Amino acid sequence: MSRKRTQNGSKRTRGRRQRTVSLSLRDRGQTTQDFAVGIGVFILAVAFVFSFLPTILTPFDSSVSGGQTAQADRIADRLVHNLSDSDTSPNAINDTAFNETDGELEDRVGLRTAGDQVSVQIEQLNESETVNDMVIGDQYNGQSAASSARIVTLDDNPEGCETACRLVVRVW
């Protein structure tokens, strides 16, 4: 194929293509400062992810097992059922029966001795103070424990517990 050209060059059958402009980046490359800033931002992002990730999983990590939580709930239910006067109210606990339970806690609530320790306290509703030293079972010292609470009334209506009290069972 040949092109047709005229002698004077003024008439052409085909137009001329425009020239492409290309830039050369040979003179400018990645500098040391660009590299340092990029790596610094990357390291900060990775550090943030690794420091934030454990806080997402923390609520699901517990030293108390589900079995201990169920056991504390079951013990609280049995104590309220066994110590209450069913004639007056289902949650009215007989004080003398509660104090006599100390030696036979395992028998009264059907507790299997699987190495778990149990503490039962009757506390005031607005504070964590025990009412008249009404504590049975092992001594609780603030360690990690599964707990269950029930609102109860006492027959004698001791001071600080006129309206209602809280029966708290802790298993660890």
TrEMBL record:
Residue stretches spanning the membrane: 35-57
- Which controlled-vocabulary keywords does the entry list? Membrane, Transmembrane, Transmembrane helix
**What InterPro entries does this protein map onto?**
DUF7287 (IPR056613)
Q: Where is the composition biased (Basic residues)?
A: 1-19
Which segments carry the region annotation Disordered?
A: 1-25
Domain of life where this protein originates:
Archaea
In this record, what's one Pfam family? DUF7287
Its protein name is: Uncharacterized protein
Q: What is the protein's species of origin?
A: Natronorubrum sulfidifaciens JCM 14089
